[in-house]
């Protein structure tokens, strides 16, 4: 072939924007009605919101009266209060520490999502990271000032409760899942009881239990502080849900894998540790992500037992009488923080799901 | 299953020897070197963080006074903010050594919770706050009103009792968190907000946008003797808390303030001499330093100073001394003699 | 051991207790596990009893018979401060059930609509529902509840400036007031008629199925069902003498008197729970529909069914099998999440049990009551949904 002919553009009736719109928006009377309704909905809600959030909003006011004058959102309030919201009562001049701790934890979460860390280095990263976070937050060594955990607060605390919650619940969750699939009736019964009991009650009642009853469970002279008690409740709660997720993964492993491991003469621990669990955990990574998101959101419930997480420090910021009545702005701001975290994680887990489809689903 | 074992082990790792054994609180506090004080954390004037995050208030001062008596240093206090729901369990379980959280002393609390009151640091009573716009002059006109109230306190019971006794109806809106409940009142969800009058004043001064738009009704519908509580079974500790409070009131009666306490050491008044430990005996009997009361007055101040600074003239709350004036000024504050 | 000579010496070697015998190991493990749990349980219980006794904390459930002394904001049954704690707790349970039942029904409807909308051919509709689902699912429910409560209490005017949307309907920060029929026994009859309608529909569906199996004639089940649901209560109302009086809310003193109220707390909780759970249900429905083989769609259009007919008659019934189990857990979540009512002051079981445990100091008993109530509700929902799941399961040949 010597002369290449100019290729003609595709016919406009079946491709291009007009055709796309005809196909996707106006293909039938019902479709037209739906489109009109949807457009109306957008027009009804979006312009007033943009006007409130951006056009009439005030970003720089120094007093609340000045801020209200515009009639729009008062983002200056966030500017005044963001340190309190993000770090709670942590000593003001030491707030770089929780900031770094938060970055470490976000880093750990991101690292867990990278396939190249899915080997023995992941537990090491987590253990190291959690220790680093503990050192940064508490201090008391390396010349850092000691800060009691009653003064921790805000976003780092939300991250701590959820990352430590999932990380420490992981071994228990796996054990519970194995126990529930075990052939030993007593162990199976115990695991089933634990899992179903925890899954049957709201997290809030677990938190109440930790804040009100736990002190009575312990022998005299023992006392665990409030934050740890809430953390224990979250761990116990997450373990039950984790167990169910892992159990789903174990059920998805074909029987041949178990039999193959048995025929090689591997012990139960070797069979599970080297053959079954690695495959099962790989399958359940997407549901693990959604569990993590759920736990991350659920930590906001510690507000109810008076722990200064992101939600509670926001509420404290709202009680300043000089800046009263900006709850909508504060909630929008905090929602945005939660949304960025959760949406990021959920998008990532959807990507993983696509990448991990290694032929288990036929 | 293993989880519980680990939880218990974790508890073992992080436990703090709190010595909840009967009779051992005093020794435990002495040996750990600070007082763990359960307080409110969100009522301005009684116990709330200031702009720097330091706890301030009338109840906080009481804890500081106990620390000053125990260790000669009022700063040896650790504060544990507690909700109304957590406060008794925290004290029962030994998480805190004393509770100074504007708590009403009642029969039930002395009789069935295993706790005991150590005195009264504020005589309060429950009242109502309404917006001026409503044009209400008396609580008797509140028939059919929607009332905001916090749950789990005597407040909720008194409210129901008062309306029942006066054949009035009302709709309660019950929200646990103080800021939420005040928010509900401020937004107009309720016509009335009810709590102890001191709390109303605190809310009006520090949490409502325009304090002048609100009026506290004249009726006081209950008796609320607020004071510190300790666990039953450790009388040594109970006595220390009780006398730390008495020392502050007694000091006011004899005109000893944090400013003049050093001059007062030279006083000839036998009472003053006994209070300040110039005439020894009292401190030793309590198991404390002879200078215990001197340290309280020097570092915390007398009751009147603490009152003015936190809830009285020198504070945003601007509460009158009223029934909390000294007995010889027409009030109820009557310290037992230090002798 | 059996005598080896009896069966011709073909017996197993005598069993000795050995660590290499899996049966022995399993017994040992189980004994150890049960013993461990027992020891821990005993440790905790004995600590608790010891702590309670040395601190003179009274225990037991006898407090339930005492006068509660506190008022409750809204109650489906008559309740006053002079009633006992047990009645107060009953009010709490009923309030929880009320929000759960209404919430589950509404969330299912809205969730299903949005789930189908996500697969709509209409690009705008699909995108909008996707945005809705993503935003709702990625923000904590508690935050959403605070948000709704703030909007309802801060944006709506006070009762004296209430918005009169329709004659007799007033919206204010005291809630939404609507006219309600005056108390009359005819309405009780109508309610009985409504319940009877369900029984009749059940019978009708079964008969229709039998007839269709026998003769191939379809019976208009949907129309008949709607007719029954409307007709039976109407019949009851007519038998009762057809009272025609409405109790219209009037402003009197501080608030509206008369009529029925939707309180801000209930409304905020319901909005929050329904919109939040609907986001999750939408995803369940979407994945359920997508799990149905595409060949079904093609076959349906081959025999000339429209898209909506295909969805209603072919795809949704098949996707139900995939949908029911995750739907069950969403219903359970909604019920458990209703416990967040305590944060915005709706008097559900958690908030009332909390108040009770504060008044009486009976912390352990109070939390036990909360847990027992949720466990029973969760179990009942699970049992019902499992029964339904079996009922619609595909009968494999």
What key phrases describe this protein's structure?
heterotrimer, B: 339 residues, alpha/beta, D-Maltodextrin-Binding Protein, domain 2, five-stranded mixed β-sheet, three-stranded parallel β-sheet, globular, disordered N terminus, C: 397 residues, alpha+beta, MetI-like fold, two-stranded antiparallel ribbon, 12 helices
Could you walk me through the main structural features you see in this protein, from its secondary elements to its overall organization?
The complex is a heterotrimer of chains A (362), B (339) and C (397). Chain A has 362 residues and is mostly helical. Helices cover 70% and strands 0% of the residues of chain A. Chain A has helices spanning 16-24, 29-55, 64-69, 75-87, 96-112, 121-138, 155-180, 185-200, 203-217, 226-252, 255-263, 268-283, 285-298, 310-318, 327-356. In chain A, helix 7 runs antiparallel to helix 8 (185-200), helix 9 crosses helix 10 and helix 10 (226-252) runs antiparallel to helix 13 (285-298). A five-stranded mixed beta sheet of chain B has the order 10-9-11-8-12, sandwiched between helices. In chain B, strands 4-1-5 form a three-stranded parallel beta sheet. In chain B, strands 2-3 form a two-stranded antiparallel sheet. Helix content of chain B is 37%, strand content 15%. The N and C termini of chain B lie far apart (58 Å). In chain B, strand 2 and strand 3 (55-56) form a beta hairpin. Chain B has a domain at 124-224: 3-Layer(aba) Sandwich (D-Maltodextrin-Binding Protein, domain 2). Chain B has 339 residues and is of the alpha/beta class. Chain C has 397 residues and is α+β, with helices and mostly antiparallel strands. Chain C has a four-stranded antiparallel beta sheet. In chain C, strands 4-5 form a two-stranded antiparallel sheet. Chain C has a two-stranded antiparallel ribbon with strand order 6-7. In chain C, helix 2 packs antiparallel against helix 11 (349-360). The longest helix of chain C has 34 residues, at 85-118. Chain C starts with 21 loop residues before the first helix and ends in a 5-residue tail after the last helix. The chains are: A mainly alpha (362), B alpha/beta (339), C alpha+beta (397). At the A-C interface, helix 2, helix 8, helix 9, helix 13 and helix 15 of A face helix 1, helix 3, helix 4, helix 9 and helix 11 of C. Chain B: Residues 34-264 form the Solute-binding protein family 3/N-terminal domain. Chain B: Belongs to the bacterial solute-binding protein 3 family.
């Amino acid at each position: 072939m010597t002369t290449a002919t100019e290729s003609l553009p595709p016919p406009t009736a079946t491709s291009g924007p007009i055709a796309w719109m005809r196909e996707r928006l106006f293909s039938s009377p019902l479709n037209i009605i739906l489109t009109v309704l949807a457009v109306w909905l957008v027009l009804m809600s979006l312009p007033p919101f943009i006007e409130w959030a951006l056009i009439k909003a005030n970003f720089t006011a120094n007093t609340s009266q000045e801020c209200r004058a515009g009639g729009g959102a008062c983002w200056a309030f966030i500017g005044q209060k963001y340190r309190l919201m993000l770090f709670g009562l942590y000593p003001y001049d030491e707030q770089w520490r929780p900031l770094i701790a938060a970055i470490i934890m976000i880093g750990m979460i991101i690292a867990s999502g990278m396939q190249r860390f899915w080997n023995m280095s992941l537990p090491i990263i987590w253990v190291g990271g959690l220790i680093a976070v503990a050192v940064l937050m508490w201090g008391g060594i390396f010349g850092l000032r000691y800060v009691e955990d009653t003064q921790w607060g805000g976003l780092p605390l939300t991250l701590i409760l959820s990352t430590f919650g999932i990380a420490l619940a992981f071994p228990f969750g796996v054990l519970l899942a194995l126990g529930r699939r075990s052939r030993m009736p007593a162990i199976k019964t115990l695991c089933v009881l634990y899992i179903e009991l925890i899954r049957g009650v709201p997290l809030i009642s677990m938190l109440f239990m930790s804040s009100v009853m736990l002190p009575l469970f312990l022998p005299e002279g023992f006392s665990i502080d409030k934050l740890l008690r809430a953390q224990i409740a979250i761990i116990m709660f997450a373990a039950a849900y984790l167990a169910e997720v892992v159990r789903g993964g174990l059920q998805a492993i074909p029987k041949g894998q178990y039999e193959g491991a048995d025929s090689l003469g591997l012990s139960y621990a070797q069979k599970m540790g080297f053959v079954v669990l690695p495959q099962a955990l790989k399958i359940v990574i997407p549901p693990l992500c959604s569990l993590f998101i759920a736990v991350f959101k659920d930590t906001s419930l510690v507000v109810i037992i008076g722990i200064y997480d992101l939600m509670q420090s926001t509420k404290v910021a709202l009680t300043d009488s000089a800046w009263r009545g900006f709850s909508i702005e504060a909630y929008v701001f905090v929602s945005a923080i939660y949304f960025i975290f959760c949406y990021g994680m959920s998008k990532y887990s959807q990507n993983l799901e696509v990448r991990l489809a290694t032929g288990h689903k036929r | 299953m293993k989880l519980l074992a680990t939880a218990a082990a974790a508890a073992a790792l992080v436990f703090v020897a709190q010595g909840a054994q009967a009779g051992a609180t005093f020794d435990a506090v002495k040996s750990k070197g600070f007082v763990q004080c359960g307080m409110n954390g969100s009522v301005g004037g009684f116990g709330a963080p200031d702009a720097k995050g330091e706890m301030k208030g009338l109840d906080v001062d009481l804890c500081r006074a106990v620390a000053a008596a125990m260790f000669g240093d009022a700063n040896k206090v650790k504060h544990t903010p507690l909700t109304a729901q957590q406060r008794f369990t925290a004290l029962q379980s030994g998480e805190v050594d004393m509770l100074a959280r504007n708590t009403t002393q009642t029969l039930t609390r002395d009789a069935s919770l295993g706790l005991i009151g150590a005195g009264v640091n504020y005589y309060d009573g429950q009242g109502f706050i309404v917006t001026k716009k409503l044009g209400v002059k008396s609580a008797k006109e509140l028939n059919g009103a929607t009332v905001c109230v916090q749950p789990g306190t005597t407040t909720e019971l008194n409210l129901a009792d008062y309306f029942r006794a006066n054949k009035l109806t009302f709709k309660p809106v019950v929200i646990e968190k103080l800021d939420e409940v005040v928010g509900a009142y401020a937004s107009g969800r309720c016509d009335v907000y009810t709590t102890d009058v001191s709390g109303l004043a605190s809310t009006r001064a520090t949490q409502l946008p325009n304090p002048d738009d609100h009026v506290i009704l004249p009726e006081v519908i209950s008796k609320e003797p607020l004071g510190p509580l300790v666990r039953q079974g450790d009388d040594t500790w109970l006595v220390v808390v009780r006398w730390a409070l008495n020392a502050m009131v007694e000091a006011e009666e004899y005109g000893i303030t944090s400013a003049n306490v050093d001059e007062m050491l030279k006083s000839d008044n036998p009472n003053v001499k006994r209070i300040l430990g110039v005439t020894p005996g009292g401190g030793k009997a309590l198991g404390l330093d002879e200078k215990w009361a001197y340290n309280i007055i020097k570092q915390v101040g007398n009751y009147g100073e603490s009152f003015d600074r936190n809830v009285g003239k020198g504070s945003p709350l601007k509460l009158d001394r009223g029934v909390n004036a000294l007995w010889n000024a027409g009030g109820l504050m009557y310290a037992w003699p230090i002798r | 051991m059996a005598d080896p000579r009896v069966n011709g010496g073909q017996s197993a070697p005598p069993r000795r207790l050995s660590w290499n015998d899996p049966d022995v190991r399993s017994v040992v493990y189980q004994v150890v596990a049960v013993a461990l749990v027992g020891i821990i349980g005993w440790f905790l219980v004995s600590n608790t009893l010891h702590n309670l006794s040395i601190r003179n904390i009274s225990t037991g459930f006898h407090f339930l018979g005492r006068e509660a002394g506190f008022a409750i904001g809204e109650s489906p049954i008559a309740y006053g401060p002079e009633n006992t704690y047990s009645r107060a707790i009953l009010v709490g349970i009923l309030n929880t059930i009320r929000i759960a039942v209404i919430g589950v029904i509404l969330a299912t409807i809205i969730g299903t609509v949005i789930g189908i909308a996500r697969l709509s051919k209409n690009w705008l509709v699909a995108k909008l529902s996707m945005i809705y689902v993503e935003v709702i699912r990625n923000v904590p429910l508690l935050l959403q509840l605070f948000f709704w409560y703030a909007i309802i209490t801060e944006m709506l005017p006070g009762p004296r400036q209430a918005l009169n949307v329709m004659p007799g309907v007033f919206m204010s920060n005291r809630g939404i007031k609507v006219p309600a029929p005056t108390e009359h026994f005819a309405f009780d009859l109508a309610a009985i008629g409504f319940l009877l309608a369900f029984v009749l529909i059940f019978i009708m569906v079964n008969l229709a199925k039998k007839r269709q199996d026998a003769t191939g004639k379809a019976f208009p089940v949907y129309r008949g069902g709607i007719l029954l649901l409307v007709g039976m209560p109407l019949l009851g109302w007519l038998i009762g003498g057809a009272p025609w009086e409405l109790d219209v809310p009037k402003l009197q003193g501080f608030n509206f008197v008369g009529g029925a109220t939707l309180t801000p707390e209930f409304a905020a909780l319901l909005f929050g729970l329904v919109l939040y759970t609907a986001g999750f249900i939408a995803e369940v429905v979407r994945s359920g529909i997508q799990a149905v083989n595409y060949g079904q769609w093609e076959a349906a259009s081959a025999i000339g069914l429209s898209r909506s007919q295909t969805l209603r008659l072919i795809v949704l019934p098949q996707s139900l099998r995939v949908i029911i189990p995750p739907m069950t857990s969403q219903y359970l979540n909604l019920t458990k999440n209703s416990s967040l009512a305590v944060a915005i002051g709706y008097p559900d079981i958690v908030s009332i049990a909390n108040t009770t445990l504060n008044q009486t100091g009976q912390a352990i008993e109070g939390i036990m009551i909360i847990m027992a109530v949720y466990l029973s509700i969760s179990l009942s929902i699970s049992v019902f949904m499992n029964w339904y799941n079996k009922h619609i399961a595909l009968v494999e040949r």
